[in-house]
Write a structure and sequence with these properties.
- By secondary structure, this protein is mainly alpha-helical.
- Helix 9 packs parallel to helix 11 and helix 10 runs antiparallel to helix 11.
- The protein starts with a helix and ends in a 25-residue tail after the last helix.
- 30% of the residues are buried.
């Protein structure tokens, strides 16, 4: 077993004293101090390395405690998964949680409502986690939009849509995203905006109907005036039909995922 710093220093001093008495040589105090300092430095380095290893092992264990539940969450077990995640140190691991849930959602986009519901429950107790998740998604969306990375942009905007439905994100954020997508319409940006509206339209129709009218006026203008592909034009026409049907195929919150009471909601702008 390794010795502590005090033990190493004591051994050096004892050895020095023994050597001095046996050989009858005088050891200057400065030399003794140098030997003690060297021994303390060696012992400190050893303890620091051991502490770093322990910290790394603790971090890996926390990562497994967060990644495991997120990778297996679904509508039927989400309440159990929430309990399991709250037993982990989510304050320390909030970055791990955000990275894991964003990655899981991008790989399983149809499960986006489930991941948003999970984040909404976590947000009621740890709003710092919800805020960090939303911040990272907005940054990912903007970065992907500026780089024309359609798939990453779509994943991020879909997550933002369902966080808006769960009242983790404020509706103003959704409207800002739509403004960015439709300001200079392209085939890809309009397609992403249509997909976004299909997910968040039911909520906007409830809380900001006049603003929703303005958004659809923009879509109508793009449909008639903008130079976009016929496939995208058809997507806009289908979106208008979705609106006429009251977004019945895309409810604000799907069955089994309405887990947060209104008074517990914490909305981030």
């Amino acid at each position: 077993p390794s010795l502590s710093a005090n033990a190493v220093i004591s051994a050096v001093v004892a050895g020095a004293a023994t050597s001095t008495s046996m050989r009858g040589r005088y050891m200057p105090p400065s030399m003794r101090r140098q030997m003690m300092a060297a021994a303390a430095k060696a012992a400190g380095s050893s303890e620091q390395a051991r502490a770093e290893v322990e910290q790394r092992e603790s971090w890996e264990a926390l990562k497994k405690r967060i990644n495991g539940p997120i990778n297996k969450v679904n509508t039927s077990n989400i309440k159990e998964i929430v309990v399991e995640l709250f037993s982990a140190n989510l304050i320390r691991g909030r970055g791990l949680f955000c990275r894991s849930v964003i990655k899981a959602q991008s790989l399983s986009r149809p499960f986006t409502p489930v991941y948003a519901a999970l984040a909404a429950v976590i947000n009621t107790k740890l709003p710092i986690v919800g805020e960090l998740l939303l911040t990272r998604l907005v940054l990912q969306f903007r970065r992907a939009f500026n780089r024309d990375e359609k798939d990453r942009c779509l994943s991020a905007i879909m997550f933002i849509a369902h966080l808006t439905n769960q009242r983790v994100a404020h509706e103003v954020l959704a409207l800002q995203a739509l403004t960015l997508l439709l300001e200079n319409p392209t085939d890809d940006s309009v397609e992403i905006a249509v997909a976004f509206m299909r997910e968040v339209g039911a909520l906007l129709a409830e809380i900001v109907p006049r603003v929703l009218n303005a958004v659809f006026d923009t879509f109508r203008s793009i449909l008639h005036d903008a130079d976009i592909d016929k496939r995208v034009q058809y997507m806009i026409e289908v979106l208008f039909q979705y609106r006429r049907d009251g977004f019945k195929n895309n409810p604000v919150i799907p069955d089994g995922l309405d887990l947060v009471e209104i008074e517990e909601q914490i909305i981030h702008e």
